[in-house]
Amino acid sequence: MTSSAVQANIRKISQWSPIWIVPVAAVLIGSWMLYHTFKNQGPTVTLLASNAEGIISGKTQIKSRSVDVGKVVSVELSQDLKQVVIRARMNPGTANLLNDESQLWVVKPTIGRGGVSGLNTLLSGAYIELQPGKSDSGKYFFELLETPPIAPPDAPGVRIFLSSSDAAALAVGDPILYRGYDVGTVERSEFDMTKRNMRYQLFIRAPYDALVTENVRFWKASGMALDMSAEGVRIEMASMATLLGGGVTFDVLDGWPAGNKVANDADFQLFENRKSIQDGLYNEYLEYLLFFDESIRGLTAGAPVEYRGVRIGTVASVPYFFNMKNPLQVAFNKGIPVLIRIETGRLYDNLTLPQLRLELDQAVSKGLRAVLKTGNLLTGGLYIDLNQLEADSQRQTQAADTVSAPVAASAALDAGADNTIVATETPAIVATPLLPEPLPEFAGYKILPTSRSGLGHIEQKVLQALDKINNLPVEQVLADSSATLNATRDLMQQSQQLVQSLDALVKADATQQLPAEVNRSLADLRKTLAGLSPGSPVYERINSNLQAMDKVLRDLQPVVQTLNQQSNALILSADPKADPEPEQGNQP
């Protein structure tokens, strides 16, 4: 049995197979999905930060007014390893939130002067807050702010700048006060390298921005200010919030016009306190140099310069050695230099600097001197007092050189009993005013003469007394005193020996028996005197003998008279003589 081969007929199909519908549909669907995804996803934003604290890739949200508008997709270091690069994907329809005025910062728990903020992030974690701006220019590259902004860029109000040399004067978040009411906040602080001072940005919200005018002045509100200077003790108290946190206050000084409202970015100066503002108003002054040969302890910069109790200037520098060569030699030879300012605004209006200089030169020629005086006994603060210290006669003599005719006539007027002025006949004196001698200069400044204060005179007298005491021959006196002490020591030893000898003599048996013998002798003497007392026989016998002797003497008296008249009457009988008679006086 034979088999025959079967030949298959091959035919090429020319129609399109329906199976290709599946892959084509898959490609179309995938393309549409890719297109829809890229079309509906938000823009990518790149953020730069100093650190990535609290930020987690794929978890940290970007919020605006507590609404999720994006998410962080990656966190990595920059190529120079100095910053953190954060990339975030924004939600669809949020492109209008990103522009030149937009600001982003990390929200996390913070404790500051304004209180505690960000407590909701303790459970949910930190997030990035987006504050959109109103600019039309889009932006997709930002730097995260270290601190949240105080106010939005479009917030109604005014932003100004303050300049201060004190880096610790203000802090971000400090309040701005107007007469104790909170009207704004300190937004930013930075150090200006060109001016070498601190620069603070302040935001004052509307409607209080109208209070910021051209003539307002800003000063620190420290809550409590204690000023102990030569002018006394001054205490200022502010609100409790300012006492705890500090701040800045502003106002228009008394008597000043408010002026026009300022525009944004206006510059002002931050003063230490309100008193320093008053001192800063006097910008026209003359500087003089003083040399004191006494202690200036207690004299500080800012101390007043007064003339008979009226302030006319301010102490600028204590001590002043800026433009001086060999300052120690200057201090030893001339004294401690002090720079002062005589301010025209403190005297009277329309006083020019040349007029002030001329008046001071004339006052110095009449005896004007600068004296250190104690302004506050509690703090020991000193101030400088300018006063006429020369004798009145000398001042009158010097003043007579510049007396004019009307002044001479007025000096010759006498006041009557009815308070009327009667002129006497005194010829007018007309003299040409003499220009005072120019003051000496040192280091580019005029020198005002100085004088010691009352305490300085006392100190000088004490020093002179001490010098006299120091010049005494103390060594010779000490040597003589030493010799005197040695002689006194020898005398004391001899006295001690004498006392011992007397003590031995007193203790002797014969000396002990002596009082009894003296008592016996006194008793015998008493008995003897008792026998001679009136009424005793001895006394009567002696009295009778004396009477008999008296009688004998009276009987012998004629014999004595006769012998006085004739000494030989005992041998020859004497003629009796008649009794003498007084002679009669001559009759006229």
Q: How would you describe the overall organization of this protein?
A:
There is one protein chain. With 588 residues, the protein is an alpha+beta fold. 30% of the residues lie in helices and 28% in strands. It has twelve helices and 28 strands. It has helices spanning 21-40, 121-124, 240-245, 274-279, 327-333, 353-365, 392-399, 405-411, 454-471, 474-507, 509-531, 537-565; strands spanning 44-49, 61-64, 67-77, 84-90, 103-107, 110-112, 115-117, 127-131, 141-143, 157-164, 175-178, 181-192, 197-205, 216-220, 224-229, 232-237, 248-252, 266-271, 285-292, 304-307, 310-317, 336-343, 368-376, 381-388, 413-415, 421-423, 441-442, 445-447. An eight-stranded mixed sheet has the order 23-24-20-21-22-19-28-27. Strands 5-8-2-3-4-1-9 form a seven-stranded mixed sheet, with no helix packed on it. A hairpin with a 5-residue loop joins strand 25 and strand 26 (421-423). It is elongated. Mean pLDDT is 77; it is low at 391-433.
The stretches of 5 or more residues where confidence is low (pLDDT under 50) are: 391-433
Largest sheet entry: 8 strands, mixed
Helix content: 25-40%
C-alpha Rg, in Å?
Answer: 60 Å
Oligomer category? single chain
Q: N- to C-terminal separation?
A: 254 Å
Strand content: 25-35%
List how many beta strands DSSP finds.
28
Q: Order the strands across the largest sheet as they lie in space.
A: 23-24-20-21-22-19-28-27
Shape: elongated
Q: In DSSP terms, counting alpha (H) and pi (I) runs of 4 or more, how many helices?
A: 12
Mean pLDDT: 77
Query: Structural class given helices, strands, pairing?
Result: alpha+beta
